[in-house]
Give the backbone structure.
Amino acid sequence: MKFVRFLLTNKQIRVGLVSEEMVYDITPLMPENVDSLTDLIKNHQVTVGLLAGKELNSLEKYSFTDLDTEPNEEQPYLITPFDPPEVWACGVTYLRSREAREFETQSKTIYDHIYEAERPELFIKGNAANSRVVGPNNWVGIRNDSTWMVPEPELGLVLDADSEIMGFVIGNDQSSRDIEGENPLYLPQAKIFKNCCSIGPMLVTKDEIRDSCNLNIACRIYRGGEKIFEDSANTSQLKRSYDELISFLKRDNVILPGTVLLTGTCIVPPNEFSLADGDLIEIEIDNLGLLRNVARNI
């Protein structure tokens, strides 16, 4: 199943089921003690049972295209598909990422070691409550003290209460290459800031994805309406398994249902490229939709 959340003009948050380019408002079907999609994903079987035998055409419906628009007060629009309690990210999980890190850093052996080491690089991005994680069509941040900002298109794993994968989401791990490259100890500043991450446009449950280790990822960047960057990759290029990454995340850690783990990027713009105010970023992954965000100076 594919789920979204959207905001009505009266500021009400609604939960939608996506089917054939339409979004069906399933909010009236939700049990009284459940008021968010995060509650539903705690138990996938509850969600399946909730919708079993229901006639979708009897529900209020919207065009997905109409909802997939910039936030405004005049029409409903998509927000984060759920509120993750935390978003974590992995680094140097693809060979291309290691090459990029080695180019930008003054400590040449550090990222080579991480790529080959038993323990992966993991770091937290934040959540929606602290204004670090935003949804589709919202803006993502460009640090004012950085001159080398890039998006990082990534597959996000959505974890349940047992730290098992229950679904997937597209993620963008906004990053400052110059701050990270100056000193590895600056990683938190390179990765964690206002609107430093986006997820969306929808949560796709595990049963919808035939092979999550063979998903095409594409990234396109537009400036002034002109495409200035495009590249693609595949999750088959990932060095580490999802189970391996999750096993380290949950070591001596509390993983709340709805936690997102971004699995790293294999798409890196040319070294001379840096995001500019107003750039449109598009990230597309097979069966997960298209995530759009505009880069803005913070």
